Amino acid sequence: MAAWCSAESTKPVFVGIYGAVLGGFAVSALFFLLSSSSSLSAPTLPLPAAAIAGANLSAPTPAQPETMYNRPIWKPPPRRARMPSPRAFRLTRDMVAARARDGVIVVTFGNYAFLDFILTWGRHLTDLGVDNLLVGAMDTKLLRELYFRGVPVFDMGSRMATKDAGWGSPTFHKMGREKVLLINALLPFGYELLMCDTDMVWLKNPLPYLARYPEADLLTSSDQVIPTVTDDSLENWREVTGAFNIGIFHWRPTEPAKRLAKDWKDLVISDDKLWDQNAFNDLVRQKFGQPVQGGDLVYSYDGKLKLGVLPASIFCSGHTYFVQGMYKQLHLEPYAVHTTFQYAGTEGKRHRLREAVLFFDQPSYYDSPGGFLSFKPNIPKSLLLDGAHTVESHFELVNYELKQIRTALAVASLLKRTLVMPPLWCRLDRMWFGHPGILEGTMTRQPFLCPMDHVFEVHVMLKDLPKEEFGPHIDFREYSFLENPSLPKEVKDSLLDVQLCDEHSSRCSAVDETDKHRPFLLPRNSTEEKLLDLLSPYKDVKIIQFSSMVDAFGGFADAAVEKKFRNRVKRYVGLWCCVEFREIGHIYYDMYWDEKPGWKPHPPETREQDHPPWS
Predict the structure, then answer these.
(1) Three-class SS state of 228
(2) What is the pTM of this model?
(3) E-assigned strands of 130-184?
(4) What is the mean pLDDT of residues 1-26?
(5) Most buried of 47, 293, 355, 484 (most Cβ within 10 A)?
(6) What is the DSSP string of 23-40?
(7) Which residues cross the membrane (predicted)?
(8) The domain that contains 448 carries what CATH number?
(9) pLDDT (tens digit, 9 = 90+) per residue, 426-470?
(10) Domain that holds residue 110
């Protein structure tokens, strides 16, 4: 943190860190001097609209020579340019002044593990015409990547590892403390600060909305899941029961806000196990409940700080956006979505944004070497709509879907193709605690299109499991993949439509291979040998689309291959949580539920029984 915050302003526990950082600058200086080329280790994302249009959102006036501080976003430095010295990346008032617009700066930060999130965050903002942004780099690898991609970046001096910091880990808590220190460093510069986590994206320019409440010292998002308003006004703070969420909040450089930031810093530094968000909530609610004149804001913290709560219907959490679709039901335009309320770590956050077609991937993501396999899910209306929404009816629906997906995974594995997952339907919501199926007071409809991480262990599916035990990796894509505008036309147009037929029917034997417009007919329950024999000639077709996966595959020929496949896909599914009033309330999904006569969706009775059904 020495790059932007003096050691005198922190507790003694951090003095050693600051000393190490100062030494780190000497080490990183060598790294910078050796960085003599602007070549990147990864291909660039497609240029944002702002860059295509000339990237002149923040072009300096003729009186202002172009510098690394005011260079247009997405405009890289001159070719073969050397990396500037570490000092040039220190956070200063001049750097913020060069990037701020109308007294506002928008900031996020992270390490190299979140590069793609940061690029997605920045691209959404610039596509909305917002270019007054800065990114804090917690490691030199991210700093270099962003600099050479033309993203305004400063060095936080954190010297953090480039790997992902899992939720709740010591590194996760360290990142939280860094955020608090960063806010304390920025507020004295005198600019309004819109601080964002990297796992959120902007869908609409938020600055005009924030400007509607000039009296607010602080506007914060929240984990509120029950609407307190039905329009785009601030939440009714009297009815907010969810925690204030510090993934999106807007600070004005007022004295009450600065005092809160300092007390927050002192609190998190005093206890390295304290979660920054809990500390923030505790401080804000110390004195809470006196309305500011007009009623939209509330006095909080020290009784002088004026706080407003951003509406969760349009400054969305992972629940109000992906599960409830609250903004749709209220006919509102969302400003942002933060990938909270999900169950598969960073991989789950990324996948949710992909499902919503909000994530910007590398071009290679859209053209798998082996091609893609998709299918149209076949779900009877009775499983979706008939009867009460209970644990039993929920599992009956999901199990029916799992059986088809299991077949699709087997076919994809044999054909060495990437599976495009189908949309998943659920009758019940998932939480971390017991509940009656959906949270009372929410706008969740039943059934609903549920995120993949409600059922599948997305992070496990992406792991490189040992082939000796689990067979070959099976790649997959989100259900919206084929509708993504980034999918190349040559991929989308290269399609083989496969329809299932009864092997001994006249229709199944009457195949006219000269008619390219007719669907390809595949006998139901085809053996591995027949499947490969009939579809291998189409290995150059980019997309093979099955009309159904019900009875599409008769089984593996090799028992050893099947055993490895079963070991793999058993670990792909997670659990549903949770039955109310039970010590153990969760119920494991079972990829092979249909092989267990009398299988019922019951929670484990004892701790000894509480394990996934992998055996």
Answers:
(1) coil
(2) 0.89
(3) 133-137, 153-155
(4) 37
(5) 355
(6) HHHHHHHHHHHH------
(7) 12-34
(8) 3.40.50
(9) 999 999 999 999 999 999 999 999 999 999 999 999 999 999 999
(10) 90-330
